[in-house]
Amino acid sequence: MQNPSTQTKLAIFDLDDTLIRGDSSVLWTQYLWDKKIITDPRFVEADKEMMAQYNAGNLDMVTYLKFSLQTLDGIKTEQVDEWLDDFVDTIIIPRIYPNALSTVASYRSQGIPIIVISATVTFIVKKVADRLGADVTMGIDIKRSNGCYTTEVDGIPTFKEGKVKRLTQWISHQPITDAYIYFYTDSANDLPMCHFADETFIVNGDPRLLQAANENHWPQYSWSL
């Protein structure tokens, strides 16, 4: 391990089940269902299936997004933005772990940039990350057409090894010659980033991640509301 005092420090956080209780993508679909913005129960069922595949480590993210993003077909991004503001206020804010807030505040007090990297679509991640005061947000970018979101992914999805690729891509465009990375996550899908980071911290880890944490001696935390 290199000496962090000679490097640019970055504090990186996964979002779902790390900073907040629950998965923001699933909660978003449920919000749209509760508001009767979507009325086809297949979308809610697809999210449940997605979570099972995600937890098992075999989710085809692009295929899932092609289906789930149909919920916003033909809806202007400005309208989606209004719904997102209400969604974050009413659903997400109450789910933010107090320990997450204090941990983020601790890094900020040291002048360390806060980066949220999530395998959720960027338009959701950014809304939440902004409320947490993150300096940088990375999610799965979605192409737009005629003022609406499409079902097509733009660029590298921030999923599994894609998180490392997107982070290194971002670092390469910054005045950073050597980064020292702190990383927080709950999911074994983030193992590529766990091994890439200089220090990894496990928050409410899933069984596969806890096994890896024990093998690699990563600190483990249980955060709750």
UniProtKB/TrEMBL annotation:
Gene3D superfamilies given in the database record: HAD superfamily/HAD-like, SG protein - dephosphorylation function
Keywords, alphabetical: Hydrolase, Magnesium, Metal-binding
A Pfam entry, by short name: HAD
The enzyme's E.C. designation: 3.1.3.-
EC top class named in words: hydrolase
GO terms assigned for molecular function: hydrolase activity
Domain of life per record: Bacteria
Protein name: HAD family hydrolase
Lineage: Bacteria, Pseudomonadati, Pseudomonadota, Gammaproteobacteria, Enterobacterales
